[in-house]
Amino acid sequence: xxxxxxxxxxxxxxxxxxxxxxxxxxxxxxxxxxxxxxxxxxxxxxxxxxxxxxxxxxxxxxxxxxxxxxxxxxxxxxxxxxxxxxxxxxxxxxxxxxxxxxxxxxxxxxxxxxxxxxxxxxxxxxxxxxxxxxxxxxxxxxxxxxxxxxxxxxxxxxxxxxxxxxxxxxxxxxxxxxxxxxxxxxxxxxxxxxxxxxxxxxxxxxxxxxxxxxxxxxxxxxxxxxxxxxxxxxxxxxxxxxxxxxxxxxxxxxxxxxxxxxxxxxxxxxxxxxxxxxxxxxxxxxxxxxxxxxxxxxxxxxxxxxxxxxxxxxxxxxxxxxxxxxxxxxxxxxxxxxxxxxxxxxxxxxxxxxxxxxxxxxxxxxxxxxxxxxxxxxxxxxxxxxxxxxxxxxxxxxxxxxxxxxxxxxxxxxxxxxxxxxxxxxxxxxxxxxxxxxxxxxxxxxxxxxxxxxxxxxxxxxxxxxxxxxxxxxxxxxxxxxxxxxxxxxxxxxxxxxxxxxxxxxxxxxxxxxxxxxxxxxxxxxxxxxxxxxxxxxxxxxxxxxxxxxxxxxxxxxxxxxxxxxxxxxxxxxxxxxxxxxxxxxxxxxxxxxxxxxxxxxxxxxxxxxxxxxxxxxxxxxxxxxxxxxxxxxxxxxxxxxxxxxxxxxxxxxxxxxxxxxxxxxxxxxxxxxxxxxxxxxxxxxxxxxxxxxxxxxxxxxxxxxxxxxxxxxxxxxxxxxxxxxxxxxxxxxxxxxxxxxxxxxxxxxxxxxxxxxxxxxxxxxxxxxxxxxxxxxxxxxxxxxxxxxxxxxxxxxxxxxxxxxxxxxxxxxxxxxxxxxxxxxxxxxxxxxxxxxxxxxxxxxxxxxxxxxxxxxxxxxxxxxxxxxxxxxxxxxxxxxxxxxxxxxxxxxxxxxxxxxxxxxxxxxxxxxxxxxxxxxxxxxxxxxxxxxxxxxxxxxxxxxxxxxxxxxxxxxxxxx
Length: 962
Fold this sequence. Notes:
By secondary structure, the chain is an alpha/beta fold. The protein has 3 domains: 2-151 and 363-557, no CATH class; 165-357, Anaerobic Ribonucleotide-triphosphate Reductase Large Chain; 734-911, no CATH class. 39% of the residues lie in helices and 14% in strands. Strands 5, 6, 7, 8, 9, 12, 13, 14, 17 and 18 form a 10-stranded mixed sheet that branches. The protein has a 3-stranded antiparallel sheet with strand order 19-20-21. The protein is globular. Residues 4-21, 229-234, 702-731 and 872-914 have low confidence and may be disordered.
């Protein structure tokens, strides 16, 4: 695709046609002339039925949808449930991928023709076919709002990321609340810097003392939580930022750490404080990511051990002088305790700012990848890098260049017809036309190439790809400026924009090429930067920003990517859904490809893959050379990448990204506050724009991790892991009655003043099989209802319904009587049902299953508190003594064993088979410990990390904004 020489009258108002003297001439790259892309693939019909993993209820159902047979079941399910428009069950409902792609692509082509982007109708048709082919073959994807809205009767919102602004006035603060609410209502996210609001140590004009920004955060947090629970497709995503020189910075730093202490106290009082728990809403500041915006002056003072001034917002006067290293230590301490706050490095961010004359960059979107002017938005799209790796291991450099040209052109066209949530955002977005092309599958690409993620060679390839992508994007932007005009804000920012383009080019020239792919990529990148800067000096640029690295959560699953964003592989085993329902465990397909790239013969590849399937890691795999182990290092598992490995990868690509990088650096539970401080300091030294960490098990919402014993046979997970995820073709339950004589125990209880008796009868050696409940007088309505309920539960248990299913359904059920109980292990109950099933869980479920449900005895909670107070991890808790009476049932049953087994002895096959519903849960099964991930609010499966957010493999829901 080449740009014809021409001029235009400028960007003009939305809806008006640009009077372009010429347009783009478009050449075919992926398509064949005379053959429509749809005719090149084989199509099939499927039924999509989505269920809630926890209770089996059906969330969604649509039959006869049409997809290429190359698309996975998961990708098809996510597109059907998330992106098809129209009411289910009506003729207006979309039912084919063709309809979805046509709805979007036809809108892009039509708008492009109307605004003079193409030299002829033939060029527009080639553009349409190429875009269709790439989307059909999962080469790239637009961000979710494009699929939601383009070509529908809804507002044509195409952006997922927004930055707001708030000034030091009540009107501005109330506008902030309103604007955030509108953005959350649409399922998107926003970020804001509150540093303009005067501190609680400054005076109002009336003479009183100001409230300070932290107080106003409470209202915004409550609003986000309410809108989240009011039916949005995902949780509200937001970022709150405060400058390090704000007088209220220490209060800001401590907000979430202090609330985490409150969560622990409430949990130990019997309240449900787990992720998604009914009582978690009672604590504050849980709906936002917090970041401190640190200056170079502050970071240098930290290094030198100097002082630093906190300044008033009204006149900049020094309010207090503090020790910089001490404040930095408080930031690290808070992050160690609860993962917040992250850091944003202000000097680095603004040194790479293309529009400095229009204002500083003060904030970011919730995931920290989009950084630009206040009241602006970013339109994202991501490339699937594995599509550019040839079977011989070489990289298709030229195809990447051509693909970026098409994608950037389409993204810019979308701004021309886009709608925005507020007029201020619309004005800024149309005037500066910020784009965010990025990529996914870099982790899979490096592994398939036989390169470790944490290696100089891997970083060289990643830098080359990033530089070539952004350099090509800006070159195409300069060509578009010659056709339809530069962005409106370019004239006043020409000097600054050109300076940043030169910085990118110089950084690219400085990268050391390691390997043939990196050499080819960096050579072409230098060519693109040189050519783009020459064209830009003449035409200007169409876009003030070109690239970001987003989480690529839902769209990564849509493209069947093994890895999201800049992330390495999560683990070597993968959870795969099957046509017709069911699922299976497989070894990631990238692994055998990597082994072949490393030169292993086919019989050795099979043996190594079999070892990975059995053990979940490559250690001691037959025939695998130890020097090749790092190629298969992952984010989690037996061989996990060190924290600095993640930081160094971010540093390698940051100079070639217009915005920033969405990524959280995972740290082990054993990491110290000093380790956190070191990571934050190194991030600044290496030139990152933003950095966030997560220390394993630092939040109450994560269940207590219980690692399996090292002496456990490595093959233990195999049979259960396979059984856990195999499809059950046919199953007919059989009732197992209790013998005439059976052991039982009776517990008297009182809930909110209402007294009753619970009798639980067991099989002689196999666990709970019968429940009797006695409340009120014989013959009363309540007594009859409780008798009927007891019979129903007992029959269900005898037919094999797992006790934990009943526990998960009936705990936290709220109705009167409720309140204090006389049970020392369960001090508060939301209802009689809540108490009964918590008691049954404590008496009949093993420790690891109860830990997943957040149900502990008083002694177990006290032990956890003592360990936390001592600053230790799980090693400081005597779990064997703690759970000496905690039963462990056979997998998938409600049976009570004949002897108690401590959680530390619990083997992987003791995990309930029915609870495996995602790659994260499969990894938990193989590792024998809980992962740091929330449960999906839509379908109940455990989500997996995607950048600094999380994505659900079951339904595509994300916890972020992209």
